[in-house]
Amino acid sequence: MAQVITTQDAHGVATNNGDANRSAMAFTPTVDIFERDGTTVILADMPSVAPEDVDVTLEHRTLTLHGKVKPYAPEGYRALTSEYRIGDYIRNFTLSDEIDQAKINATFKNGVLRLELPRSPEAQPKKISVKTG
What we know:
Elements: E1 5-8, E2 13-15, E3 24-27, E4 31-36, E5 39-45, E6 49-59, E7 62-69, E8 87-95, E9 105-109, E10 112-118
Parallel strand pairs: 3-8
Antiparallel strand pairs: 1-8, 2-3, 4-5, 5-10, 6-7, 7-8, 9-10
């Protein structure tokens, strides 16, 4: 079976994320990748990221996952210390031509980003009947 995605990552690298006035950490979200019935599923862990701070972009064949971690304190409280590091989750995947890019689906719940990447109909395995005689 052909590989449909290739992962690219950078582990805990200090970066300014395009802003010369900002220095933050970039974290690689851990992922599990599964396949069933012609659909590849990616589960990416991004704890401490709010749903509105998740971005998934697709440019050419590069799928980029981005989640921003913001400082947090419950309403009415002042943070005294926090062991969570502030930064961004960033991970890139290179998709093969077998993925139907128009049908990629993304959902985010409880700090887990779920991506469904269906194969295009042309890339689905086909059964070839064998005739006798």
